Amino acid sequence: MAIKKPDIHILVCASFRTTGEPKGVCHRKGSTDLLSYLENEILDRGLNAQVTSTGCFKLCDKGPVMVVHPGNHWYGEIDEEKIDQILDKLEENQPAAELLLT
Fold first, then answer.
1. pLDDT value at position 72?
2. What is the pTM of this model?
3. What spatial distance separates the first Cα and last Cα of the chain, rounded to whole Å?
4. Is residue 90 part of a domain?
5. What does the radius of gyration of the chain's CA atoms come to, in whole angstroms?
6. In CATH, what number is assigned to the domain containing residue 55?
7. How many domains does the chain have?
8. Looking at residue 22, what is its pLDDT?
9. Alpha-carbon distance 75 to 86, whole Å?
10. Quick one: which of 13, 19, 28, 61 has the most CB atoms within 10 Å?
11. Rounded CA gap, 63 and 13, in Å?
12. Which of 90, 93, 92, 68 lies closest to 78 in space, CA to CA?
């Protein structure tokens, strides 16, 4: 039986440490609160995407940070408005170029 793999994988920094504790800038700036918003938007849009919370991406000054694959597109200072813009572009199979971290 074949595994149904997502077309898109979205990683959201939750500042998890090796002990499993969420600490750090992204966590303090509400990155984990954005996870349910992101999941709901993905479902509403019918995207075949998987969301994963992660450990620190080491870009604390740009937090919360989100990475989208395929494409290895990195976005910083994520909020609900930016998530909407990023997902709008994903529906067009494009990155939200104006929001990319460079």
1. 97
2. 0.89
3. 41
4. yes
5. 13
6. 3.40.30.10
7. 1
8. 63
9. 9
10. 13
11. 8
12. 68
Do the Cβ atoms of 55 and 15 come closer than 8 Å? yes
SS3 2: coil
Chain segment 56-73, per-residue pLDDT in tens? 888 989 999 999 999 999
Residue 1 in domain:
no
- List the structure tokens of 93: 């199979």
Give CA torsion, residues 14, 33, 67, 11, to 10 deg: 60
Residue 81 is given by DSSP the state H
What is the C-alpha separation between 50 and 18, in angstroms, rounded? 22
- Tens digits of residue pLDDT in 22-65: 667 887 888 888 999 999 999 999 999 999 998 888 898 999 99
Residue 63 lies in a domain: yes
Domain of 52 in residue numbering reads as 8-94
